[in-house]
Write a structure and sequence with these properties.
single chain, about 270 residues, alpha/beta, 5-stranded antiparallel beta sheet, globular, phosphoprotein, LytTR_DNA-bd_dom, CheY-like_superfamily, Sig_transdc_resp-reg_receiver
Length: about 270
């Protein structure tokens, strides 16, 4: 799978440097470069790339204007590259894959390309599934209804609804939906339900398997949050931010898990 890519930056040296770093990825093909926002909009509409690395601060049309300018077509994935940290939350609002600071760090670029690969794989799998469903809808509507019903049943039954927690010599039955967030401390998990906290002896990896990922997502190396109980996203420094939960508790989202925030602002 080749990732067709366009680079947008009004600084020629910045484009050259990024293009050089991208040569390390055999599946990334740079099909064009643009020096301003207007050029970028034309190129994106014409070439229909998979990915665009986009500078934010440019004369005339800035990076966010470019995103708005291609919304009438199916937009590519965007990665913002900039020298200004204060644009991080707006990057989330644009549902960017990532937000890279200049000069671009090679390790962070590698992490970004891996995220792009995952997003594209998920997108293409979803497209193939939709095509199949369209065919079934025409030739066998009853089969499509059976598939939808079985998918819903399988998803709902796969994950825990209640968790038994032995804490302080007692066994507590905790409704999973009431859990606000979970923090890891070695092989122990601190389970917070807003008005209570309990200790569960289990690894985070094992606990994640028991929770529905549509509701529970990791936002830090040692923290899982119930997305349904997030009430506010508050920006912080260095591309990080805080999630304010229903109880008023605040949980930091590290740079590595910023994709989660896009769910609230897209």
């Amino acid at each position: 799978m080749t990732i067709r890519t366009i680079l947008v930056d009004d600084e020629k040296l910045a484009i050259q440097g990024l293009q050089l770093r991208l040569e390390a990825f055999a599946d990334v093909e740079v099909i064009g470069t643009c020096a301003n926002g207007r050029e970028a909009i034309r190129a994106i509409k014409t070439e229909k790339p998979d990915l665009v690395f986009l500078d934010i601060q440019m004369p005339g049309f800035d990076g966010f204007s470019v995103v708005k300018g291609v919304m009438e077509i199916e937009p590519p994935l965007f990665v913002f590259v900039t020298a200004y940290e204060e644009h991080a939350i707006r990057a989330f609002e644009a549902n960017a894959v990532n937000y890279l600071m200049k000069p671009v760090d090679e390790a962070k670029l590698a992490d970004t390309i891996e995220r792009v690969r995952q997003r594209l794989a998920e997108k293409r799998s979803a497209e193939e599934a939709e095509k199949l469903k369209d065919v079934l809808a025409e030739v066998s509507p009853e089969s499509l209804e059976e598939i939808a019903s079985s998918e819903e049943t399988e998803t709902s039954s796969r994950y825990e609804k209640m968790i038994n927690i032995k804490d302080r010599g007692q066994i507590f039955r905790v409704d999973v939906d009431s859990i606000e967030h979970i923090e890891a401390a070695g092989d122990y998990m601190c389970i917070y339900t807003g008005d209570n906290s309990l200790i569960l002896r289990e690894t985070m990896k094992d606990l994640e398997r028991r929770l529905d990922p549509r509701n529970f997502q990791r936002v830090h190396r040692s923290t899982i949050v119930n997305l349904d109980l997030v009430r506010q996203v508050r920006p912080h420094t260095n591309g990080e931010c805080f999630l304010v939960l229903e109880s008023g508790a605040e949980v930091k989202v590290s740079r590595s898990y910023r994709d989660v925030v896009a769910r609230f602002v897209h």
